[in-house]
Amino acid sequence: MFLISPKQLREFGIIGMNQRNFGLVARYNPRRLYPLVDDKLKTKFLAQKAGITVPKLLGTLLYQHDVRKLEKLLTSYDEFVIKPVKGSGGKGILVISRREHNCYFKPSGDMLSLIEIKRHVSNIISGLHSLGGKPDTVMIESLIKLDPVFSGYSYEGVPDLRVIVLKGYPIMAMLRLATHASDGRANLHQGAVGVGIDIGTGNALHAVQFGKPVHRHPDTRKAFTELSIPHWDKLLTLAAACYEMTGLGYLGVDIVLDRDQGPMIIELNARPGLSIQIANNAGLLPRIKTIEALQYIDPNPESRVDFSKKYFCARSSPQSAPRTKHARSNDLALL
Questions:
Q1: Residue 47, SS3?
Q2: What is the tens place of the pLDDT at every residue in 177-225?
Q3: Closest listed residue to residue 278, CA positions, set 206, 198, 223
Q4: CATH C-level class of 12-38+147-315
Q5: Which residues contact 289 (CB under 8 A, 6 or more apart)?
Q6: Where are the beta strands (DSSP E) in the chain?
Q7: What confidence score (pLDDT) does residue 159 get?
Q8: For a disulfide at 257, which of 142, 147, 199, 291, Cβ 3.0-4.6 Å?
Q9: Chain centroid to CA 113
Q10: How many C-beta atoms lie closer than 10 Å to residue 149's C-beta?
Q11: What residue ranges of the chain are covered by domains with CATH 3.30.470.20?
């Protein structure tokens, strides 16, 4: 088993959970603003108010007695996504890609009955998948259509782009690609592939699955060497604008490219995970220090994107950025 020392982590600029929680989340994210991103319905309405495209909301279920309404609600839809409003880490998300009579099929081909879907919805409402285990609300959204540019790069699901934004500046990005192991969901903990994306160009840099480097998609076998994200400037600007939209200084912005409607925001996260560093084979610390050293935060999202593309491009050298004086051994816990 390969181990890495705290000293090596510092040299790579890797930040751990302590630095994230106290140096970023607690410092830049006022707790009163957490509900704006912890509640997916509030996030959706906030984005719509700001003129940002989000997946269409098909319905909501608030109470256990609402479960009986599910069959009627789903009558008009052959494909949809069921989510817990206050879920995290992809838990509780159920993707249905087709229906035949009373049989519902996941992207993997696994079949579910209406009774099984009702049970899943009931579990969400009871708080099985919510933060803190508190009673939750079910939201049902339209299914996002795969943009053809990602054909062969994702399996049984739609990829999403995670962008880390600090004080309005995009500092690191990765593309999360669904696999058979992840059951069609773009969640790294469940087996999706994380592909580090060059902030400067939108091109793939490095890819991992279950924390180990991979060079091809495990299911389609397509190589990542030619993967490039279209509309890159627009996507980064969309992520940067979430700083003004939420008031949160440290933010994970999740974006998808829909075949018909283009870029959409699907989720915001006030405590984004740190596995993005593994996907990029690079640490966040030098980029954080670069932003924290700025005396002036540009009010224009496009200008902030230009800055990020210049200073966080893969061709730029991060070694000149200052390093922290201290790091703790439990910073080894990256996820």
A1: helix
A2: 999 888 877 888 889 999 999 999 999 999 999 989 999 999 999 999 9
A3: 206
A4: alpha beta
A5: 321, 322, 323
A6: 57-61, 80-84, 94-96, 98-100, 103-105, 111-113, 138-141, 160-166, 169-177, 193-197, 204-209, 212-213, 250-258, 262-269
A7: 92
A8: 147
A9: 29
A10: 15
A11: 12-38+147-315
